[in-house]
Amino acid sequence: MPLTRLDPVTALIIVDLQKGLVGLPLAHPIEPVIRHARSLADAFRARALPVVLVNVAGSAPGRTEQQRQTGLHTAGPRPAGWTDLVPELGQQPDDIVLTKRTWGAFASTDLEAQLKTRGVTQVVISGVATGTGVEATARQAYEAGFNVTLACDAMTDSRAQAHDYSIRSVFPRLGETGTSAEIIALLPPIGSA
């Protein structure tokens, strides 16, 4: 289904585009993903719409059957700068910056309250990894009552199959999907607010 519209107060959420993750093997080249995320961030900032930059500094405890991958779940201390957001995002003082310790950006933070305080009714989500951090954030946003849009060219995963499955089978049940250019085209003209 093509994108229909964006609510007047829509926020952009960029998930886990941080130094410790973007260097891991990914299904798609990371440079275009970062470039598309930055174009979204610039467009939202130009319209004074909220931009949320999320990094991850841990994971939920608990046992899993599948061995955890290296990178996020590596035992021991992480290298210096591991949680730093990539500078290409052009972080600004007005951006909302959150650190999470679970897959989704809502479960272990005050993101829902921050967005609702600002009158946000819709979120656009991008980042890594499509099948974990992005999908969990989208599910949590949907469950919190936000309209959800997913910028499919501004995300990737370490597993191509997980990326494709989320985009094809999960995201259409949570919201609408599109490219960063299609999403930007639905934003109000600059200065119209």
UniProtKB/TrEMBL annotation:
Q: Per its UniProt record, what CDD domains does this chain match?
A: cysteine_hydrolases
Q: Which Gene3D superfamilies does its entry note?
A: Isochorismatase-like
Q: Isochorismatase-like domain: from which residue to which, for each copy?
A: 10-182
Q: Which GO terms describe its molecular function?
A: hydrolase activity
Query: InterPro entries per the record?
Result: Isochorismatase-like_dom, Isochorismatase-like_hydrls, Isochorismatase-like_sf
Coiled coil ranges (UniProt) are none
Q: Which residues cross the membrane?
A: none
Q: What is this protein identified as?
A: Hydrolase
Q: Which UniProt keywords apply?
A: Hydrolase
